[in-house]
Amino acid sequence: METFHIKGQKPLYGTVAVSGSKNAALPILAASLLTDKPVILERMPALSDIKVMCDILSALGCSVASGAEDTLIIETAGLSRHKLPYDLTGRLRGSFLVMGPLLARCGRVAISLPGGCAIGARPVDLHLKGLSALGATFKITKGIIEGTAKKLVGTKIYLDFPSVGATENIMSAAVLAEGTTIIENAATEPEIVDLANFLCSMGGRILGAGSNTVKIIGVAGLTGTRYAIMPDRIEAGTLLTAAAITGGQVTVTGIRPDTLKPITAKFSEMNIPITIQNNTVTVEPRKTMRAVDIKTLPFPGFPTDMQAPMTALLSLSEGTGIITETVFENRFMHTGELCRMGASIKVSGRNAVIEGKKSLSGAKVKATDLRAGAALVLAGLAARGDTEISDIYHIDRGYDALEKKLQSLGAEIERKP
Ligand code: EPZ
Description:
Layout: E1 3-7, E2 13-17, H1 22-31, E3 39-42, H2 48-59, E4 63-66, E5 72-75, H3 86-89, H4 99-106, E6 108-112, H5 125-133, E7 137-141, E8 144-148, E9 156-158, H6 164-174, E10 180-184, H7 190-201, E11 205-207, E12 213-217, E13 225-228, H8 233-246, E14 249-253, H9 261-269, E15 274-276, E16 280-283, E17 294-296, H10 307-314, E18 320-325, H11 333-339, E19 344-348, E20 351-355, E21 364-366, H12 370-382, E22 386-390, H13 393-396, H14 402-407, E23 412-416
Parallel strand pairs: 2-14, 3-13, 9-10, 17-18, 21-22
Antiparallel strand pairs: 1-22, 1-23, 3-5, 4-5, 6-8, 7-8, 10-12, 11-12, 14-16, 15-16, 18-20, 19-20
Helix pairs in contact: 1-2, 1-7, 4-6, 5-6, 6-7, 8-10, 8-12, 10-12, 11-12
Bound molecules: ligand EPZ.
Ligand EPZ binds near residues 121, 163, 165, 166 and 371.
């Protein structure tokens, strides 16, 4: 199994461009099933999660071809199956996002109920509640959930929690429903807006995406489209954190700073000098970093996906910071590994109390999930000595060539077989 080897304490300098957003690309790939015309997607990140979603589309009878650079061409005219293969869905929770589009396109879907994962139980009750309200019926046998829908009819749906995935599944299905659907207490993440923009580029009619109330006016059919995925705000935040934790100066380009506001606001609170221009953000060398408290919340609150990277940063800040993780119930698994590098973190329930230290020491550590792995890379970049990270396949799920981007900024990080 591949590992990352990092020689720490090298301040990063330079400019780096972010890739397309994993969490926008996955629902958009799934929503490509809503049309039988060609869909061309640009700025697709090269990630293992994206590869699995493409393999799922192929397994359903669609054709997925690589175009120039980071472009994919999806043609779903050959869609001939509605059962998703377990060997693929078991590797990607995001495969559940295919449910709404398949119900809308062909009125049936069969997919393994996604189990929990490292960070939590990850139920899908809100997805099923919304799709049932549109007229789908479900039955579960041996862990496989089969959905059927003779016709989807628009209705009003209130989400008990502003679930990103449930909002995406319901929005995608409602685009082809008869009549109008209103989703209340919808998720407002930028990835929801990107999916809505994608659907509207195919002739969908969606109003209010990015607010708590989304209105979808059903249409009879959708055209093909050419669409560029939004830049990845979590990758951008992770790269900016790499600059801050090593005391360097890095400009991250090709981003939408408005999607990074919760993150850049925290950096300013920590006295990390930050400059925001129209599509770049620069972190400048800092003297000290003041510890702050962070509470993860649905957008526009602080993103849970940046919680682990910020835990690493707070481990080297002046003072004590408290992180409260309100979105997932088990998202502190990186703290044990960070403590093995000399961090002082005490976890109790949803809170982690981090007492900043002067330095961390390199160690052999293991990635437990995607963002935890990123946190260990950040800690290794700042630590005295060498760090070896195993199970880096977790990191490859959500970061496109992270080590190459960091190497271009002067980091001594190497991927070893
Ligand atoms: C999306 O997951 C992202 N994944 C996650 O990113 C991200 O952390 C999360 O949104 C929150 O922003 C993708 O977009 C592919 P949720 P999702 O439904 O849709 C509860 C990463 O690291 N819930 O908003 O699964 C759930 O248990 C990943 O890139 C229900 O109770 O997130 C959780 O506590 C990790 N019932 C909370 O809502 C449901 O039916 C947030 O889940 C659905 C969710």
